[in-house]
Every structure is written in C-alpha cells, then in structure tokens.
Design brief:
Helix content is about 100%, strand content about 0%. By secondary structure, the protein is an all-alpha fold. The chain has one domain. The chain starts with a helix and ends with a helix. This is YtxH domain-containing protein. It comes from Flavivirga eckloniae.
C-alpha cells in the first residue's frame, strides 16, 4: 500500500511538471506573438505618421506656390492698370494740348 501511494504521488508530480512546462511554453509563444504584433502596430503607426507629415509638407508647398502665383498675377494686373492709366493720362494731355492749339489758332 505504501508503494502504491508513493508511486501515485510520483506519477502526479511528474504529470504536473510536464503539464506546467508545456503551459509556460505556450505562454512564452503567446507573449512573443503579442510582442511581434505590438511591434508591427508601432511600425504601422510610424509609417502612417510619416505619410501624414509628407502630405502636410506637400500641401504647404502647394499652398505656397499658389500664393506666389497669385502675387505674381496681382503684380502683373497692377502693372497693366498703371500702364493703362498712364496711357489714358497721356491721351488726355494730348487732347488738352490739341484743344489749346485749336483755341490759340483761332
């Protein structure tokens, strides 16, 4: 009877030790899988942040170019308006001179 109890206890201890070793192996595998998933998620977040930064940079550059073009166009319009105003003043001055000549000639 004593041998039977000791044998049973020995079998239980051996069974538990193999079971517990197997569980820790699964836990280690699960932990490694979680770490790998976390690393992939971190890489994905970093990649998304990089893409967002590139998009902001491109939008800023495009806006700057649009402002530059608008400034250039406004400058050209002002130059044309100044030229047109100068021509109108010249024509008015010529008309006044012609009118004065006509009046002085009569």
């Amino acid at each position: 009877m004593k041998k039977f109890l000791l044998s049973t206890a020995l079998l239980l201890v051996l069974g538990l030790s193999f079971t517990s070793c197997r569980d820790t192996k699964k836990a280690e595998d699960a932990e490694a899988a979680v770490e790998a998933a976390a690393e992939k998620a971190e890489e994905a977040v970093e990649a998304a942040a990089d893409k967002a930064e590139e998009a902001v940079d491109a939008a800023t550059e495009a806006a700057g170019e649009a402002v530059d073009k608008a400034v250039d166009a406004a400058g050209e319009t002002v130059d044309k308006a100044v030229d047109a105003a100068g021509e109108t003043v010249d024509k008015a001055a010529d008309a006044v001179k012609d009118k004065i000549k006509k009046e002085a000639g009569h």
